[in-house]
Please model this.
Amino acid sequence: MPTFDFDPFAQMRRQTHGAPPPPLEQAAFDAAHNAVIAHLPQGLDAVLDAVVATWARADGIFDTVRTTPAYALGAPPAACRRGCGWCCHQKVGAAAIEVLAISRALAERPTERRMLEAWQVGQPCAFLKDGACSIYDIRPLKCRSLWHVDVRHCMAKYAGLPVGGAKTDPSFRSEPKMIYEGALKGLALPLIKQGRDCPGLELMPALRAVIDKEDAAQMWWTGHSPFPAETVLDWFPKPSKKRRR
Ligand code: SF4
Ligand code: SF4
Model:
């Protein structure tokens, strides 16, 4: 058994002085965690299926929440809309297992695959077309979680302009953030606990590193990361090799 003890809610508990995670985050975490646990014994493809199911399940939770009066009245509405993609001009993150699931799906999507192949460092996300996401149904959880209330804040961040003071409103809707980040932790935790490396990755270079490598997912499954070290973002602790089973 792995001795790795990763508590995905530890940081939140520190911030809330021991209070349990919010119900929305816990619900999304449980759904993702249970999906991965159920699929793990069936192998890699089944785990990638669990990622796709998790995207849909987390969307379902958010769809339910956003129809409620509490959501409509709870905070200013988000400014997000089709055609607004300032957030897609910034560094985009995804869990390693999501990158592998997106890569698998792109095998059936030649247009989007070509968009990825044409991408170069310094450009916005390859899948941004006319301000909209070309892989909307398979975009990472981090992309789903971002719902800012003031588009000027996103523009200013992109442009490297000051975002403090009264210039722009940095608020975002907390509900999608809780739901999708709960799902992200729920995806990663069972993999990390099993000794599999599931860091956060920078989406574009990580995808580019595996898209032409037919055995990339299998490499990852057998403990040999196909992702270059420079694509790794510091989201989750790294399990030690000796704990792998
Ligand atoms: S997060 Fe900001 S940039 Fe992205 S869609 Fe929403 S308002 Fe636009
Ligand atoms: S995957 Fe889609 S939503 Fe995410 S950054 Fe790229 S274009 Fe934007």
